[in-house]
Amino acid sequence: MKEVLIAENAGFCFGVKRAMNMAQKELEEKKDISVYALGPLIHNKQAVEKYENMGLITIDKIDDVNQNLESEMIIRSHGVPKITYDEAESKSIDIVDTTCPFVKKIHYIVSKGEEENKSIILLGDSNHPEVIGINGWCKDKAIIFKELEEVKDYDFDKTKEYLVVSQTTMNEKNFDNIIEYLETLGLKLSVKNTICSATRVRQQAARELSQKVDVMVVIGGKHSSNTQKLVKICSEIVDTISIETKEDMKDVDFSGYNKIGVTAGASTPDWIIEEAIEFLKTC
Q1: Is 139 helix (H, G, I), strand (E, B) or coil?
Q2: Where are the alpha helices (DSSP H) in the chain?
Q3: Which fold would CATH assign to domain 3-11+197-282?
Q4: What is the active site of this protein (predicted)?
Q5: Known binding-site positions
């Protein structure tokens, strides 16, 4: 039997667990109304499907809410731009707001910074819903960078004051490298490290475990930003396999590995992790 080691802090983070619990409560208590989610509740296909089987209706835009029926709309854990709240209010759509409190804090920081006429630098993936949401709280004016090379190519205005925030799931090493570079430019710079503490601890635990095993298995959605960052961190140290469920491992040859490490993204349900671990023990 293989030795399987599990990283600390693998699986649901506080924000995701909170969102899932809030959504479950609505589905259980509001069986007589339509419960919508604006975008996938979390970045895990299996978990979303489970809730959709309970009655959750996932939509892409507010116009998809059937206003002829009694309904409510869940704002997912990633958060949304301010304009979404304004639109929901104008259409008299009741909202259940499951935005992660750590993301909400960034909304407040950039909104206040924009009011104070600061230029917002937002570090993260411009296509990620969390980043889109944050940008929407500073009138979509944020300068968004994902990698250090992009920062080096940008022409900064030294007469302006810049406020730096980041996506909660950003790789901390990338964040530190970018800040270190920005500080060499002589800018008027305020830095808020808004990487979630759970993300920081999860990434460090994955890094440490990767140094003790022959291979790492990272469990989580293919579209989950924090999961893919774990994949990148682990793969820089040891052979790494990225999976969504145990089914993805059925054709993987583990014969050359004696010690297997496991970690999981913040949107990965416990039952998926447990099934994967049981599978690995039988390899």
Answers
A1: coil
A2: 14-29, 45-53, 82-90, 101-115, 129-135, 148-152, 172-182, 197-210, 225-235, 270-281
A3: Cobalt-precorrin-4 Transmethylase; domain 1 (3.40.1010)
A4: 130
A5: 13, 43, 78, 100, 128, 168, 196, 224-226, 267
Q: What is the pLDDT of residues 178-214, one digit of tens each?
A: 999 999 999 999 999 999 988 889 999 999 999 999 9
Known binding-site positions for dimethylallyl diphosphate:
43, 78, 128, 224-226, 267
Residue 87 and residue 163: Cα distance in Å, rounded? Answer: 28
Specify the pTM. 0.86
Q: Which residues contact 54 (CB under 8 A, 6 or more apart)?
A: 24, 27, 28
Tokens encoding 191: 């830095």
CA distances, 217 to each of 130, 200, 251 (Å): 26, 19, 14
**Which pLDDT does position 282 carry in this prediction?**
85
> Which CATH number applies to 14-98?
3.40.50.11270
Task: Detail the residues annotated as belonging to a binding site for [4Fe-4S] cluster.
Answer: 13, 100, 196
How is residue 266 written in tokens?
């913040």
The span from the CA of 80 to the CA of 104, in Å, is: 10
Q: Into which CATH architecture does domain 102-191 fall?
A: 3-Layer(aba) Sandwich (3.40)
Q: Which residues contact 136 (CB under 8 A, 6 or more apart)?
A: 80, 81, 82, 83, 84
Percentage of the chain lying above the pLDDT 90 cut? 86
Assigned token pair, 206: 């994955």
Q: Which among 132, 17, 182 has a CA at the least distance from the CA of 25? A: 17
What is d(CA 86, CA 205) in angstroms, rounded to the nearest whole number?
40
Residues known to be catalytic: 130
CB–CB of 168/106 below 8 Å? yes
- Asked if domains 3-11+197-282 and 102-191 share a fold, the reply is yes
